[in-house]
Amino acid sequence: MNGNDGKGKRIRRAWRTLAARTLFCLPVLAVFPVLPALAQTDPRLVDIIRQAQEGRGDSARTKARRLLAATSPTDTLYPQIIYTQAMVASDANEMRRQLQRVAVEYSTASWADDALLRLVQLDYASGNLEGAARNLERIRLDYPDSPLLPQTSYWAARTYFDQKAPELACRWIADGLAQSRSNVELQNQLGYLDQRCAGIRAEIAARPPIDSQPGLASGGTNTAALPPEQAEPLPTPPPSNPTPVATAPAPTPDEPAPAPARPEPPAPATTSPEPAAVASRPAQTTGRFRVQVTAVRVPATAQALADRLRKQGLTPVIVQEAGLHKVRVGDYASRPEAAAALPDLRAKLGGSLFVVAEP
Question: pLDDT at position 344, please?
Fold first, then answer.
């Protein structure tokens, strides 16, 4: 890590500490009592945010567009500019579009977890609790070391309480309280929500041990006590009086063996869209080159991007490698051929695209 990256992270932490005491006044997000810190590290972005706060939103959005046009998509500042465009957006739909772009196209950037948390807030405010829960789990699974997890726990608690999943809500609250001891305001807000967990914890403690519950074999799993994503259905017992299966008698030596049954004709093909091809290392194509668009941990995220690329007339593939799902496009016979297509793809898709060789 170079000195500039280290300095940027220190500035970002300082912004977050300050924002723990100050609310961002953008009208679109005025309904939120807790917001993650803005952590723009470039003075031009800080000025754009300040203009929006002072009511000069049109000027702020114009500056952000010009700055994005003058910045290379491979620059680490590029996703930060898109995030800033979301923060000064004139309406919630535009904010959502820009945040989704950061979360999907720049999932490895340091702003992806910020974008996901903003999407959680937008989904919660619009009543889309399922969407909020999906993005909450993406933060938990894809960004386990994110400094935003304490703030995320607040929104997770509200989301899961509203979804009638109090055990999940209380689990997030416990984690948030443990991780936010230096943030007095957040501790107070989580502590207020935690009052609802006293009865939940008492109910869990009063449950009989697994071995004593009827219908469970020794050493079985109490699926009723598990949250929905961990519960597994119990096996279905066989019927008490199974119907005997009739078997054909073996042919006698004087009888010819019966002819084998004619196979059923294949079902007609449907016209539903095909998912992106998924390859595991090594790739099936021999000596070819592709352009990599992104690499993410969540398969659904990779598939969503592949679907979008297909609608743009491209032919995406998803390569599974080292725990990542890498979305790639194109099929070129040589590296120069792939490199020649790279500028057009970057102009069309944005992001830090690059050429990869597949054995």
Answer: 85
CATH of the domain at 335: 3.30.70.1070
* Domains contained in the chain, number: 2
Residue 82 in domain? yes
Q: In the listed set 147, 181, 202, which residue is the last one of a domain according to the structure?
A: 147
In a domain, 193, yes or no: no
Name 170's Cβ contacts closer than 8 Å, sequence gap at least 6: 157, 194, 196, 197, 200, 201
Last residue of a domain, one of 102, 128, 147: 147
- CA 205 vs. chain centroid, Å, equals 33
Q: In this structure, what is the dihedral angle of CA atoms 93, 72, 7, 15, given to the nearest 10 degrees?
A: -10
Higher-scoring residue by pLDDT: 76, 206: 76
Task: Return d(Cα 351, Cα 136) in angstroms, integer.
Answer: 24
What residue numbers bound the domain in which 323 lies?
277-358
Identify the CATH number of the domain in which residue 16 sits. 1.25.40
What would the pLDDT profile of 224-250 be if each residue is shown by its tens digit?
334 444 444 444 444 444 444 444 454
pTM: 0.53
pLDDT of residue 347: 76
The mean of the pLDDT values for the chain is: 74
Angle between helices 184-194 and 149-162 (to 10 degrees): 20
| pLDDT tens per residue, range 305-338 | 888 889 888 999 999 887 788 889 999 999 889 8
Q: First CA to last CA across the chain, in angstroms?
A: 31
Question: DSSP H helical segments within the chain, as ranges?
Answer: 3-19, 43-53, 57-69, 77-87, 92-105, 112-125, 129-142, 149-162, 166-179, 184-194, 197-206, 299-311, 335-349
Q: Which two tokens stand for residue 352?
A: 């830090």
Within a domain: 19: yes
At 328, phi and psi to the nearest 5? -130, 155
d(Cα 149, Cα 90) in Å, to the nearest integer?
A: 27
The answer to whether residues 201 and 38 touch, using CB atoms and an 8 Å cutoff, is no
Q: Rounded to the nearest 5°, which phi and psi values hold at 326?
A: -100, 120
